[in-house]
Amino acid sequence: MWGVALRSILGSLPVLLIVSLITFGLMRLIPGDPAAAIAGMSATADQLALIRKDLGLDEPFVVQLVKWYGGLLQGNLGRSILMGQDVLQVTLIRLPVTIALAMYALVLTLLLGMVSGIVAALRQNTLVDQLAMVFSMIGISVPNFFLGLLMILLFAVHLGWLPTGGYIPLWQDPIGWLRTSTMPALSLALLQMGLLARITRSTMLEVLRQDYIRTARAKGLPRRVVVVKHALTNALIPITTVVGIIISLSISGAVVTESLFSIPGMGQLLTQAVLNRDYPMVQGGLLLTTTFLVLVNILVDIAYAILDPRVRYERS
Amino acid sequence: MARTGWGPLGFAAAMAFIGALGSTSALAQTYKCPKVGGDFVFGQEANVNSLDQMTSTTISTRNVAMNIFEALMARDESNNPITDLAESYTESPDGLIYTFKLRQGVKFHNGKAMTSADVVASWDRYKRVAAERQILDNVEKWEAPDASTFVVTMKKRQPTFVEFISSFSQPIVIIPAELKDDAPQQLRTIGTGPFQLVEFLPGSHVRLKRYDGYTPNTKFTERTGFGGYKQACFNTVTFRIVTEPGARVAGLRTGELHGVEDIPFTSVADLKKDNRITILPLENWWVHIASANASQVPTDNAKFRQAVMALLDNEEIMEASTDGNYKLNVGFQYPHQASYTDAGKEFYNQKSPAKAKALLAESGYKGEPVFLLTNKDYPSMYNASLVMSQQMQSIGIKAELKVVDWPTAVQMAAAPSPSPGWNFFFTGYGTQPALGALATMNFFMGTNPNYKPKPGQEDTVLAAEWENMNLKVDPKERQAAFVAMQKRIFEQAYVFPFGSLTKVQGVRANVVGYKPFRIPRFSNVSFQ
Amino acid sequence: MNGPELVAVRPAADDAPLEEEFEVAAKRQAPWRMTVRRLFRHRLFLMGLCLCSIILLAGVFAQLITTADPVRLAMRWRFRAPGVDGFVFGTDNFGRSLWARVVFGAQLSLYIGFSVVLLNAVFGTLIGAAAGYFRKLDNALMRVNDAMMAFPAILLAIAITAVLGASTFNAILALSIVYIPRTARIVRASVIVLREMEYVQAAVAAGAGHWRILRRHILPNAMAPLIVQLSFLFAYAVLSEATLSFLGLGAVPPTPTWGNIMAEGRQYLVEAPWIITIPGIALMITVMGLNLLGDGLRDVLDPRLRIQQ
């Protein structure tokens, strides 16, 4: 198990290096620079030139690159041009917001997606099965920005049940957080729910057809016991791997969802940073986010190794 | 006698002068909050990146920071310079020395009393980091002979100096001297204003609370413009970032938000029916504009530009661009401003395809593509470009939209002449027209004027009038110079002002004292 | 993590459909006639085919089924609700018929989706085959691949379109760059398995060249998972293009794409909800159709995971 972890961590280092290089290159290739964002709507060309000089944006590409990696080696990710704050500090404030939202979406996904997948598998080819599959099909076919807008229209504008946006930190007011996060979490979760329901269903069906399940049933074990003890445990293995993907999906989906609902998370931060050409923020923020995702995947690998006897055997 | 040196606004300047020396009428009651307390939530459309009022010129920063910081001088409700942190000021007869007396008893949010040392430090930082620091280029030095006096010595006489230092575009806000070395965009948020910062979470909200140690300016009895007698009535004011227009409207409806900016026009009719909501139009938010690029074919040809000018139907453009929320407006100032002129009106909104075709033929246009540089970050600019391109196509001009994002558009448009890849740049003149004619005409001057003349071919008529606008001591002559400039710009079709855009704000009906201004002001506003 | 099973299910920072992860790498190829017959017995596949055909026909015959100009402004007719004044789907803020815009939008959405699929088929196969077949290239190619996949997909697409500028072609390019690594990974997984197959080893022993082995023995057998992947990719490309356009980074307006229409309608969410709802539903139908097609293809082409309907 530790072997798996160590290997994954070592294997991810070159990936992170390439990620940071690509980010750096891409950001410098984008036309436009942060001066426009700082100067606002109507600045004269002379003012823009002045701001550009102040920011050191007229330095050559290689100098900027060396400076950035030099800082990185000392644990310094630089400062956001736009916000003037330390990139690490900003990320440490924003990333938990996105993670909290992703976790909420994950809980919704696991609850609703897995349950409907299991029910559909157990009641294969019945109306329940077909309904569940139709809903999961709709789930994976709706763009989340569309869903978000429709939910604002329905729950906020017409029914007035939930606030239209605004964000209340979880640790400040958990109830308020639930109220402000439910629509965004739902709009993130629907896609994943659809995916998970479909995967759970097909894995369960496959497991249920396996010989050992038939044997267990033949031995006269009650159906419930068979399902929970044998089928579900085995079906969990591929589902574990899905959890990692779902977390990545939430972070990626957050790019749109957070802007739509004004949630001050990583997705909104990075999108704004790209659009405003806040180079250090994009470089540092993306590197940290990717690192986080890589860590999640390593954890998933480890969980996988624990759950799946075949992998365990192979490793030891 | 001291001069105020105020630009084209001759009469208004006199009023300002009286204001500066203390116009407190014995009869007027000093403002008192009808009710103290309550937590106000404002729905703001754009994200706030930094509260450094000295380096950021974005409106979103000003929205918040102008409630926190104050400067020596400000503008009143009619845009005339007034003293704010200064008690008074005098100008020496030769116009070279300005002496400011500071208001007594002013304390920073950290409890420290403000002295002239803080003013010196603030001006020092401004000179070092501000994007508009060139307004101090003509200043020889500033010094503090005693704790309550601040003296500015000019290199040359500059009759427009007070106009610049009272500007709210990037005001020289006064900060405690110990913050003088704060890096750009990183100013610690300590000011002297009626509100102080509680928490700032970029992307989500900024929360301010009433500063109980605030000393109002007793020269006045009421808030006026960004100055006057200011009192914070609310316990807290929260600026919540709500970028989705529909969400702002819904928030105002449900009462989650007590005030919002930029309500889509299509929602206005509905909201007006709701007696729990007061709709407040903020007129003349910006002059909607396309500026031509005189360094590229075919817009380098004056006849071609004039053809487009003859063609434009500004009503159609403004209608689409603002959903009907506009006023036709000739030129670069608004009718309520003393500096307003309709010079050049014969060129505005001509709607004459016949004349346009004739001019187009004269110009020898050979079907070259004409690129309209626009963006989708500001839908009104995009909409304007769409309509204008269609109008141009109708007389056979090969107009093509070039849609990029705002920072790219700005960079392309600001590239020094010859500035490639575009012929018309869609933008808005917002803050500058509000500041006055001088600030606006600044767009056409400098090393990189925005009509992009080919190098060495800058318009000499404009340059000569600009000199007059800056250096003539008589405000009337300065105004005459502005009139000549505006006329010349229309005649040469350097830029195409379509009209003025109205922004609609709204508050809950139980909010009293809220008056739309360029930047929302939360002093002297309270709940019923 | 060398076995094919593990490669196939290894989780990745991935936005592509999950189904691809469950592909089995190697399998026998069914005669195409049988495959088609099976597909046409697959109920969900047929449903998907119907939905896709409707959108495809609308797109192909856009010029015939609407006489209205999707781009021309007609300010007199702004904000007509669906059914009012003869506008089936209503009009938008410029008075343009939404029917015309949505129909022409179908054309563009399908064109973009198809182009992305095509580029993926070509470059995904090339990269995947090279990595899977030539061990020396594998490590380098897959590291870059992993890095590309580690980015949040939409953010990468945003950055690429910001570099290239917004246009239909650049949106295709950006989405291809985002998705090719995912396709390459699937192809690579199949190729690795196939390379070790006895008949391939036999061909190597017989002295066949690399190109011949790849072309004759490996790639044809790696097609099934690729086709399944591409059908889901189509759905994803259509969705992502809409998201990009919605963020103002897709095809240049006033070109009607569904994302563009929705982005413009966003301002009028409360007063004219039809402007975003109608293209939203069209988008949903398309993506659903494509997903159903993908399901059907997978069930039929991939016997191991086939689930009796």
What does this structure look like?
The complex is a heterotrimer of chains A (316), B (528) and C (309). With 316 residues, chain A is mostly helical. Chain A has helices at residues 2-29, 34-39, 45-54, 61-73, 87-122, 127-141, 144-158, 174-209, 211-218, 223-261, 266-275, 279-307, 309-315. Chain A has 13 helices and no strands. In chain A, α8 crosses α10, α9 crosses α10 and α11 packs antiparallel against α12 (279-307). With 528 residues, chain B is an alpha+beta fold. Chain B has helices at residues 10-22, 59-65, 116-129, 161-165, 245-254, 265-272, 302-311, 314-322, 353-363, 379-393, 406-414, 431-435, 437-441, 460-471, 475-492; strands spanning 39-44, 73-75, 81-83, 86-91, 97-102, 139-146, 149-154, 195-201, 205-210, 223-224, 227-228, 236-241, 259-260, 277-292, 326-327, 369-375, 398-404, 424-429, 495-508, 511-512, 526-527. In chain B, strands 1, 8, 9, 12, 13, 14, 15, 16, 17, 18 and 19 form an 11-stranded mixed beta sheet that branches. A 4-stranded antiparallel beta sheet of chain B has the order 4-5-7-6. In chain B, strands 2-3 form a two-stranded antiparallel sheet. The longest helix of chain B is centred in the C-terminal third of the chain and has 18 residues, at 475-492. The relative contact order of chain B is 0.16. Mean pLDDT of chain B is 90; it is low at 1-26. Chain C is mainly alpha-helical. Chain C has one domain: MetI-like (MetI-like fold), CATH 1.10.3720. Chain C has helices at 4-9, 32-41, 43-60, 62-65, 98-133, 135-150, 153-164, 168-195, 198-205, 210-246, 258-265, 274-301. The longest helix of chain C is centred in the C-terminal third of the chain and has 37 residues, at 210-246. Chains in contact: A-B, A-C, B-C.
Briefly, what is this?
The complex is a heterotrimer of chains A (316), B (528) and C (309). Chain B has 528 residues and is of the alpha+beta class.
What are the low-pLDDT stretches of chain B, counting only 5+ consecutive residues below 50?
Answer: 1-26
Average residue pLDDT of chain B: 90
Helix content of chain B: 25-40%
Q: What is the CATH homology-level superfamily of chain C? A: MetI-like
Q: What is the domain total for the residues of chain B?
A: 2
User: How many helical elements of chain B?
Assistant: 15
Biggest interface, chains and residues, is:
A-B, 57 and 65 residues
Kindly identify the CATH topology of chain C.
MetI-like fold
Multimeric status of the protein: heterotrimer
- Please estimate the helix content of chain C: 55-70%
Q: What would you call the structural class of chain C?
A: mainly alpha
Largest sheet, strands/sense/barrel of chain B: 11 strands, mixed
Rounded radius of gyration of chain B (Å) = 24 Å
- Termini Cα gap of chain C: 34 Å
Which second-level CATH architecture of chain C applies?
Answer: Orthogonal Bundle
Radius of gyration of chain C over all CA atoms, rounded: 22 Å
* Total number of beta strands of chain B: 21
- The CATH superfamily of the largest domain in chain B is Periplasmic binding protein-like II
Overall SS class of chain B: alpha+beta
Count of individual domains of chain C: 1
The percentage of residues in β strands of chain B lies in 15-25%
